[in-house]
Write a structure and sequence with these properties.
The chain has about 180 residues and is an alpha+beta fold. The protein is built from two helices and eight strands, in the order αβββββββαβ. A hairpin with an 8-residue loop joins β3 (about 65-70) and β4 (about 80-90).
């Protein structure tokens, strides 16, 4: 009985300290900075995608994807600022400006999908004047790479990510002008 109780205590203790899939950023606190604001649509930011890193992904992860989504955009369906997928499973970080349209800062094999401005890569925040918008930045651990036409919409990529997600982790940042 004593051995059984000891074993149960170890199992409960291990479960209590299990690490969860987590997304972090050195560039984002609670607010989007001028670096992550667009340099178009009436905004004068630097249009640099944020540095992101993740840890404790499921062991069976075959690829990662990252999205930046503004559900407060006045479009009726939100606005996808960045959709990058097929990030190698060995990658745990995207450096700042990985969403650059040249794709020079992406890990080999990763694909910058089209954002809602119609171009591949990151397009910065540019909410209309008024209340702050909430930007949801999510990393997906995927059970397989995503096979899509290079011109697939952000919504179609998002659908495929959700269909293939083992786990996901998010952070939120707000932007206002």
């Amino acid at each position: 009985m004593k051995k059984l109780l000891t074993l149960m205590a170890v199992v409960i203790s291990s479960a209590a300290f299990a690490q969860t899939f987590t997304l972090k950023s050195n560039d984002l606190g609670g607010q989007i900075s001028n670096k992550q604001f667009a340099s178009s649509f009436g905004c004068s930011g630097e249009n640099v995608s944020p540095q992101l890193r993740w840890e404790n992904a499921p062991k069976e992860t075959q690829a990662f994807a990252v999205t930046v989504y503004d559900g407060d955009a006045p479009t009726g369906s939100g606005f996808w600022h960045w959709v990058v997928y097929n990030i190698p499973a060995t990658t745990t970080e995207l450096k700042a400006d990985a969403g650059n349209f040249s794709q020079k800062n992406l890990p080999a094999g990763a694909i910058n999908g089209n954002n809602d401005a119609g171009a591949p890569g990151f397009v910065g925040a540019c909410p209309p004047p008024g209340p702050a918008h909430m930007y949801l930045i999510t990393v997906y651990a995927l059970k397989s790479k995503i096979e899509l036409d290079k011109n697939a919409s952000a919504a179609m990529i998002g659908f495929m990510l959700n269909m293939n997600a083992l786990s996901k982790a998010s952070i939120v940042a707000y932007g206002q002008r």
